Amino acid sequence: MVLFQRDDCHLCDLALEVLAAARAPEFESVFIDDDAVLEDRYGLRVPVLRDAGRGAELDWPFDEARLRGFLGG
User: Which architecture characterizes domain 2-72 according to CATH?
Assistant: First the structure.
């Protein structure tokens, strides 16, 4: 599981709070700021949670219920 985010991103901070509240499994934080490929893909969408195993992505905004559905799906 990867959370794509930016430095100094208020929405990313909110996403981290939701992940903590939902007791999401461990995930990697990837900052897209200095990566042109990731910036092109996720620049307007961050924060985005990606499950690489399924190839599924959950775009912000999400709440605990939506996150749990994503994690369980």
Answer: 3-Layer(aba) Sandwich (3.40)
Contact 56, 50 (CB under 8 A): yes
Q: In a 10 Å sphere around its CB, with 0-12 CB exposed, 13-18 middle and 19+ buried, how is residue 71 labelled? A: middle
Give the C-alpha separation, 53 to 42, whole Å.
18
Report the interhelical angle of 64-72 vs 10-21 (nearest 10°).
70
The pLDDT tens digits for 40-68 are: 999 999 999 999 999 999 999 999 999 99
Domain limits of the chain? 2-72
